[in-house]
Amino acid sequence: MMINTPFVYGRIADKEDFTDREVEQEQLFRSLSGRVNTVIISPRRWGKTSLVNKVVQRLAADRSIRVCQVDIFNCRTEEHFYQTYAMAVLKANYSVWEDFIRSARKYLGRLLPAVTLSDAAQTYELSFGLDFKDNKMTYDEILDLPQTISRDTGKRIIVCLDEFQNINEYDEPLAFQRKLRSHWQLHTDVCYCLYGSKRHMLLHIFNDYEMPFYKFGDILFLQKIAREEWSRFICRRFADTGKRISAELSGMIADRMKNHPYYTQQLSQQVWFRTPSEATDEIVNAAFHSLIDQLSLLFSNLIDTLTPRQINFLLAVADGVTNFSSREALIRYQLGTSANIKNLKKAALEKDLIDILPGNHIELQDPAFEYWLTNVYSNR
Ligand SMILES: Nc1ncnc2c1ncn2[C@@H]1O[C@H](COP(=O)(O)OP(=O)(O)OP(=O)(O)O)[C@@H](O)[C@H]1O
Ligand SMILES: [Mg+2]
Questions:
Q1: Of 4, 6, 5, 10, whose CA–CA distance to 263 is shortest?
Q2: Which pairing describes strands 218-221 and 38-41: parallel, antiparallel, or unpaired?
Q3: CB-based contact 267:287 (threshold 8 Å)
Q4: Is the CB of 265 under 6 A from ligand 1?
Q5: What is the pLDDT of residue 135?
Q6: According to the model, what pLDDT value does residue 300 have?
Q7: How confident is the model at residue 90 (pLDDT cuts 50, 70, 90)?
Q8: Could you tell me the sign of the dihedral formed by the alpha carbons of 158, 159, 165, 168, in that order?
Q9: What's 306-379's CATH class?
Q10: Where are the domains of the chain?
């Protein structure tokens, strides 16, 4: 029997699974409908995709607008980007198969796309012939596709590009950014919403004066969801399924996970599973420790990829150290000389282990890892 569990994690949160974000929804809705390009940045699993999905549903209700969502998570090369992109733009604008084929021929005709119907559910597949590879000109045409279609259909287009940080893995990321920017700035009927994790890298792209995307649009830093919201939400979801949890205990779940959206949902789920009718302290604690246990192998593997000094640095971060170069910190955490600190920070940032918040405040991105590091690992 499939039980409908009241919490989701690792999937888009929507409808009754979605909570909070009123202000962000409003802001994003206003920006995108007002043609303001917007960049959304947060660490992984904080809710970017869910937020955009929510706003897109509202935008799509406006018949003069077409929204195109492209996830470039799997695009490891520029070439793959263009394929995925062309496909997504056509799909968003032509929902009927015949229209889709016709538009593919019309707009991509010269690139000789082979369009195949891959199954009965009409999932469209588009593959490009050799011509495409050899003819750089056509990349430009693909980038202009939203604007071209918008002119033809008279509808405004909003392009949402998820996992935007991935463009940094292409062979020549800077040249690629220049190219995107030079096309996009001419697209008067298209609005772009770009989002992803890796704050550090994205800030470099969008906030550094010498970069092509400098001041491309508004930047929205998505925050975690507040404790009170979580508490209300968790109580409600328990109640929806005929179980109970007090405001205090639901707040404790959020506290345990430092309000991290994904983990708070995950821990809530585990507590819910263990709760016959009313949650207790013991259940919350047992669920938390069992979750840390489950994750422990993952964390051990992660630790294996780090040098002893990198681990010590993370321990210092977890302990709330702020001045890593102080004599005391260097000795206590065996960080070497103060000249090392910059590299240790950089390595941790690049591995997505820490986040540097405004005010130069550093914290570990993963609250479960943080707990494991200070309570399990260091007690070995
Ligand atoms: N508004 C929300 N209400 C409730 N839960 C949420 C919300 N936003 C995110 N979550 C929780 O966080 C998880 C991750 O959300 P989502 O995939 O939208 O984040 P993301 O920032 O796009 O992550 P990634 O960087 O990995 O792509 C969801 O599966 C859900 O458990
Ligand atoms: Mg996402």
A1: 10
A2: parallel
A3: yes
A4: yes
A5: 47
A6: 97
A7: confident
A8: negative
A9: mainly alpha
A10: 21-221, 227-294, 306-379
Taking the CB of residue 330, how many other CB atoms lie within 10 A of it? 19
Classify domain 21-221 by CATH number: 3.40.50.300
Is the model's pLDDT at 190 over the cut of 60? yes
- Residues 320, 18: Cα–Cα separation, whole Å: 32
Maximum Cα interatomic distance, the chain, rounded to a whole number of Å: 70
Confidence of residue 96 (pLDDT cuts 50, 70, 90): low
148 is written with which tokens? Answer: 């071209």
Ligand 1 test: best mutation among 262, 352, 365, most atoms within 8 Å of CB?
A: 262
Ligand 1 center–CA 123 separation, angstroms = 26
Span 227-294 CATH architecture: Orthogonal Bundle (1.10)
Identify the pLDDT of residue 126: 56
Indicate if ligand 1 lies below 6 Å from the C-beta of 19: yes
* pLDDT score recorded for residue 101: 72
Residue 324 Cα to ligand 1 midpoint, Å, equals 32
Integer Rg of the chain from CA: 24
Residues in the chain: 380
Q: Which residue from 93, 193, 194 is spatially nearest to 145, judged by alpha carbons?
A: 93
Regarding the beta carbon of 221 and ligand 1, being less than 6 Å apart is answered no
More confident residue, 152 or 288: 288
Averaged pLDDT, 210-229 = 96
- The pair of structure tokens assigned to 297 is 């192998």
Would you call 34 helix, strand, or coil by DSSP? coil
Distance CA 349, CA 290 (A): 28
pLDDT digits (tens, 9 = 90+) for 234-259: 999 999 999 999 999 999 999 999 99
- Cβ neighbours around 195 below 10 Å, total: 23
Nearest to 287 by CA among 261, 266, 318, 317: 266
Q: From the alpha carbon of 266, which atom of ligand 1 is closest?
A: 31
Sign of CA dihedral 199, 204, 208, 213: negative
Closest CA to 252 of 272, 226, 227: 227
